[in-house]
């Protein structure tokens, strides 16, 4: 399936979650078997090319794509969670996102020192979530140099934020505007 065909499977919901936001809804993409498979294959190729020894995905939609990529590569999946979701001792970081603020946590024992971890997520907006995940993973000892996304919203500056964190970014598709 060609990238333009995959992009056509993403539904745009205007004014969600706030007026002026064009929400890019991937539920229509993941509900299409061939589209979902082609998306996972694209992400997997980039993660493999980056030398991924593990995949990290942020809650919640990063779990969908990240776990699929990890399974396809035969490597472990590291869940980067919302606060209070893990039953063990965690490390965490607060961060700003496109329309508010949040916190991410992870089990610091989920990675080994020097392990090459690729971040996989559905959407790159401001880069706040991916930068926070990078901080946590590096704090735990991972080497994080690559992040791959299904969608990039270039006008929101996420690519630049990740590049400032020494992260190479790849995205299957981009949408203009918010």
Report on the architecture of this protein.
The chain has six helices and nine strands. With 178 residues, it is an alpha/beta fold. The chain has one domain: Rossmann fold, CATH 3.40.50.2020. Strands 4-3-7-8-9 form a five-stranded parallel β-sheet, with helices on both faces. A two-stranded antiparallel sheet has the order 1-2. The chain has a two-stranded antiparallel ribbon with strand order 5-6. Strand 5 (91-97) and strand 6 form a beta hairpin. Helix 3 crosses helix 4 (61-73).
Write the layout of secondary structure elements.
Elements: H1 3-7, E1 11-14, E2 22-25, H2 27-30, H3 33-49, E3 54-58, H4 61-73, E4 76-80, E5 91-97, E6 100-106, E7 116-124, H5 128-139, E8 143-152, H6 158-164, E9 168-174
Parallel strand pairs: 3-4, 3-7, 7-8, 8-9
Antiparallel strand pairs: 1-2, 5-6
């Amino acid at each position: 399936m060609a990238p333009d065909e995959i992009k056509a499977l993403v539904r745009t919901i205007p004014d969600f979650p706030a007026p002026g936001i064009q929400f890019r809804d991937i539920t229509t993409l993941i509900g299409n078997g061939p589209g979902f498979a082609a998306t996972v294959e694209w992400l997997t190729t980039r993660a493999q090319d980056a030398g991924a020894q593990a995949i990290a995905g942020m809650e919640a939609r990063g779990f969908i794509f990240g776990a699929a990529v990890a399974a396809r590569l035969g490597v472990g999946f590291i869940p980067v969670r919302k606060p209070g979701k893990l039953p063990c001792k965690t490390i965490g970081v607060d961060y700003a996102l496109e329309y508010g603020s949040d916190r991410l946590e992870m089990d610091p024992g989920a990675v080994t020192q020097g392990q090459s971890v690729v971040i996989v997520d559905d959407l790159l907006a401001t880069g706040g979530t991916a930068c926070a995940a990078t901080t946590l993973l590096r704090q735990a000892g991972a080497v994080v140099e690559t992040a791959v996304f299904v969608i990039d919203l270039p006008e929101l500056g996420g690519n630049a934020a990740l590049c400032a964190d020494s992260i190479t970014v790849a995205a299957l598709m981009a949408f203009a505007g918010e």
